[in-house]
Amino acid sequence: MSDVSFTLLKATYKKETGEEFILPRDLISMGFVEEDDTVTNAGLLLCDQGFIRQSKIVCTRWKGTEKGSIDGDALDDREFSDASIITLLNDAEAFIRNNSKNAWTIRGMRREEKSDYPFKAVREVLVNALIHRDYQIVGTEVHVDIYDDRLEITSPGGMLNGSRIQDLDLKRVPSMRRNEIISDIFGRLHYMDRRGSGIGRIINSYTDFTEKPVFYSNEFYFQVVLPNRSVADPAQLNLDLYSESQFNDEKTQFSNEKTQLTNRKLNSDKDWELIYFKEKLIEQIDNAFRSKTINQIEQLFNRYRYDYSFNRRNIAEMFCISENGASGFIKKCLEKNIIKKEKIDSYRFVNKQNE
């Protein structure tokens, strides 16, 4: 007990239940500490220090729809460790939110769900990954991988009874707990439902979409794939909303845009989008930047293009500069309307083709 602290657990318990967490009484009664003051494995996972090394979460935002399919394909990556699994849960949620084009928002006491990924489903999958994973497999961790079209969350260890989730009726999956003590405390904190209805809530988050969550497991790992709702197809597409004239207008507009793009493409060996960006950049800067800064802007665009957002830390790591230096870089680009701010510490290149 002298080596650890439970400040976060105590504060979170008070916040979520309204009841006081009494030390050391509740630590012993809930199974975090033995009578002789020895901390249990569950206690090591919930203490502020997070002493079990393999409890970490590795999060990556990939460029495109597959790993390694595009140069510079990792747009953002973080590793969360050495902390309570409550902290790891919050950090992973924040990473997903910050790397979603349409993130869930919090207004007052309620969350807006017009987002790439429904908050309730994200919370449910992350909680299950943390409380049901096999912590005895040393050298493993939970992985969160975000692609353009989906979110994948993978945790070590398969189903407790050896079955495969893809072979079961998802409406009748039995509730089995590999780690009883941390499952119990997450239930008390209202992070999960003790009745085993989590899979149903995940699936119900996609009622209005054709693409559904995918569950897969084998003896080594368990994986859940959540489709990006912003690019998923609606379950019912009302074609009557489009009149023939509207369809023809859109077809003509698409044809014109395609012609414009073709004209800009110099040849098959050159990237017309990058060349077009450079042309517009030269028009904008008006000798405001040094050649080194211009080169950095071009490198940044080559990685993120118009499709992906980036933040101060991404710039600092990419150019090996301090975050204060990255802030100055961002300020200059904002002043020249090269980039725009989407939300706190999230930026995207301004697409002049749409102006």
Structure commentary:
It is built from 12 helices and 10 strands. With 355 residues, the protein is of the alpha+beta class. It has 2 domains: 52-227, Heat Shock Protein 90 (2-Layer Sandwich); 266-354, Winged helix-like DNA-binding domain superfamily/Winged helix DNA-binding domain (Arc Repressor Mutant, subunit A, Orthogonal Bundle), CATH 1.10.10. A 6-stranded mixed beta sheet has the order 2-1-5-6-8-7, covered by helices on one side. Strand 9 (339-343) and strand 10 form a beta hairpin. The protein is globular and about 70 Å long. The chain starts with 6 loop residues before the first helix and ends in a 6-residue tail after the last strand.
